[in-house]
Write a structure and sequence with these properties.
The complex is a heterodimer of chains A (101) and B (518). Chain A is mainly α. Chain A has three helices and no strands. Chain A has one domain. In chain B, α1 packs across α14, α5 packs antiparallel against α8 and α8 crosses α13. Chain B folds into two domains: 305 residues, no CATH class; 70 residues, no CATH class. Chain B has a seven-stranded antiparallel beta sheet, with helices on one face. Chain B starts with a helix and ends with a helix. Chain B is an alpha+beta fold and 518 residues long. Chain B contains 20 helices and seven strands. The chains are: A mainly alpha (101), B alpha+beta (518). Chains A and B meet through α1, α2 and α3 of A and α1, α5, α8, α9 and α10 of B.
Chain lengths: 101, 518
């Protein structure tokens, strides 16, 4: 899971970054917010946990988008958006699939 | 990813703007019009221009009369109460397959059904366009609008970052300077003055649809059980039908009870679930006319006995979400604020449009010299997206006044024909814009002038409610307002057409504009 080859043309690199930041950023924002909601549901009414984190998810996504288009290290981007996004989303899906928190 | 943070932000601002600006303009334009969606309804549905005394409304008269002509064995009756902005009651029903039918409009004075006006008008076409683009497949429209919304937030943040002198931009608009400079001034002016509004309106618009955009957050707590989530969050409630016939207790008494529970606020709409069944329930929802939040206060009654089964009110965080949604939906009654929303919405349109003009004008010379197609493509896109959608909207209004009631053409109902007029004319404006570079802006501005005047004339000719008459009667003020805005739009389009004509004489990116583009 290392960054794309530096020999790739600029256009391809840019397209990859846009896909990674938009798609991976979404998975990460949705996954992290879902996990946070599942945890918050242990200490507050679950409908409140859901609505709170679903609203904050937009802010999380915005922050990730802005960072994703300014960060120069591609390796870090792939680690956070690629690996982190997939892991967080998969984990949140697993909880949902098992019937929710 | 560029050398500096500011340069990265400038890159993001430029390209997110160029790629999604057309979509953003369409969303802003339709959203701005939606501020007056019910007033547009009155203009496009002349038979609903009633002077209705609200005191006389009786649910026990209205609802059975509205439902008289339909199969009693349906899933749901929905009745929207008349109000300050909509003098007619609105009736929908849902069949056993979950299909919605409506709206039918009723005269609240006697419950009489108003003849079908053959139009989707403001609430049926313009308002849903704003958030769904009428692309129903897989919620595609919602996702595109969501993407545009996120881009808008990123554009606002990056726009602030690349700015050097925000305070000066409060007061700077050099109309007489060359086009790149004056369009950038206007872009900055509307962007800076409107910044709080633009940020809040975009974020609140996204937050309304949290359950569509982040279904995973709901699922991570509720699994796939949306029904329970909807019950907890919004107070949804219904009972299994028994199949045995039931009766309907007096609705006015239920409404009085709900009004008492809500400290004097009446119901805004009423739903009867499984009408005719022994297990039918009546759901009263509190009016949203009197506070900012889109409250989810509900009282559920047993339809047969009128006994209260359940009440619901939002939990604190849900209440915050409903307040944010209410900031966006403006269902509360407040005319000065409604006009302010309209003006700020227009400022968003101006910001989007001038951003495009600036992009085109600062690159025109270089692209021409290097033989790049960018300017030509984007200029056509801009003209079609900005002037074109305005022309298409005006064509929608004009078609509404020209098509006779009940007309069908090529198997299409009247309401669909109006929508066809909108989309076909919009397509034509794009074709025109790409085939006549340089002249398209001006010519389409003149088309706006002509169509706006024509719409006013046609309203007077076909309904008799001309401006003088409309201004003289309170219940016709929505019609007068629409005519006045059309009349106000014409000179603005004229000014822009003339300004763009002058530009042809000396269209060169000036030095200061290039500097500001850094």
């Amino acid at each position: 899971m290392s960054g794309p080859d530096a020999a790739m043309p600029q256009g391809v690199l840019l397209a990859l970054r846009i896909l990674l930041v938009l798609g991976g950023g979404y998975l990460l924002a949705a996954g992290v917010s879902g996990l946070a909601a599942a945890m918050l549901a242990l200490v507050m009414p679950r409908v409140e946990a859901v609505v709170l984190m679903a609203m904050l998810a937009f802010v999380v996504y915005l922050a990730l988008l802005l960072w994703g288009f300014t960060e120069r290290s591609r390796a870090l981007l792939w680690a956070v958006f690629g690996v982190g996004g997939l892991l967080a989303f998969a984990f949140a899906k697993l909880i949902a699939w098992s019937g929710g928190a | 990813m560029d050398q500096t943070f500011r340069k990265s932000m400038a890159w993001l601002h430029t390209w997110a703007g160029v790629v999604l600006g057309a979509l953003l303009f369409a969303i802003f334009w339709m959203g701005t019009l939606s501020v007056f969606d019910k007033e547009i309804d009155r203009w496009m549905m002349p038979d609903t221009r009633l002077a209705a005394p609200l005191e006389t409304v009786s649910l026990d008269r209205l609802l059975p009369q509205a439902a008289a002509e339909i199969d009693p064995n349906v899933g749901l009756w929905w009745l929207g109460m008349p109000g300050d902005r909509q003098p007619v009651a609105e009736f929908w029903y849902v069949d056993m397959n979950g299909e919605w039918y409506g709206p039918a409009f009723l005269d609240p004075r006697n419950g009489a059904r108003i003849a079908d006006q053959g139009t989707l008008a403001g609430t049926g076409f313009i308002f849903p366009f704003h958030f769904s683009l009428h692309l129903g497949w897989q919620n595609l429209g919602y996702w595109l609008v969501g993407l545009a919304g996120m881009a808008m937030l990123a554009l606002l943040v990056s726009g602030v970052v690349i700015h050097r002198k925000i305070f000066a931009d409060f007061f700077t608009f050099r109309w007489q300077r060359k086009l790149p400079r004056s369009s950038l001034d206007l872009h900055n002016l509307t962007g800076v003055l409107g910044l709080p509004f633009h940020f809040v309106i975009t974020l609140s618009g996204l937050i309304i649809f949290f359950a569509i955009h982040f279904p995973g957050v709901v699922n991570s707590v509720y699994g796939g059980d949306r029904a329970t989530f909807n019950r907890d969050a919004f107070g949804s409630f219904q009972r299994e039908a028994t199949g045995a016939p039931g009766s309907l207790a007096p609705l006015d008494r239920m409404a009085a009870e709900a009004t008492r529970i809500w400290g004097g606020d009446p119901p805004g709409f009423v739903r009867v679930w499984r009408p005719g069944d022994a297990n039918a329930t009546v759901e009263m929802r509190r009016t949203r006319a009197r506070s900012i939040d889109m409250n989810v206060d509900a009282v559920h009654f047993d339809a047969a006995t009128g006994e209260v089964l359940r009440t619901h009110t939002a939990a604190p965080v849900v209440h915050v979400q409903r307040f944010i949604a209410g900031l966006h939906f403006i269902q509360f009654e407040h005319w000065p604020l409604r006009w302010l929303y309209f003006v700020l919405g227009l400022s968003g349109c101006v910001m989007t449009g001038t951003g495009y003009v600036y992009w085109v004008e600062t690159r025109r010379k270089r692209h021409a010299a290097q033989g790049l197609p960018g300017v030509r493509i984007v200029e056509g896109l801009t003209v079609g997206a900005v002037a074109g959608i305005i022309i298409a909207t005006l064509a929608f209004f004009v078609a509404n006044r020209l098509l006779p009631l009940g007309v069908t053409f090529a198997g299409q109902e009247r309401a669909a024909l109006e929508v066809w007029a909108f989309y076909l004319i919009w397509l034509v404006t794009f074709a025109h814009a790409w085939s006549r570079p340089g002249r398209a802006w001006r010519e389409q501005c003149w088309a706006i002038v002509g169509l706006a005047m024509l719409a006013v004339v046609l309203n007077a000719a076909t309904t008799g409610d001309h401006l003088v008459r409309a201004l003289a009667h309170r219940h016709l003020w929505p019609v007068a307002g629409m005519d006045l805005l059309l009349l106000a739009g014409a000179p603005v389009a004229t000014l822009i057409a003339l300004r763009l004509t002058r530009r042809r004489i000396a269209a060169r990116p000036s030095q200061d504009a290039l500097k500001a583009a850094e």
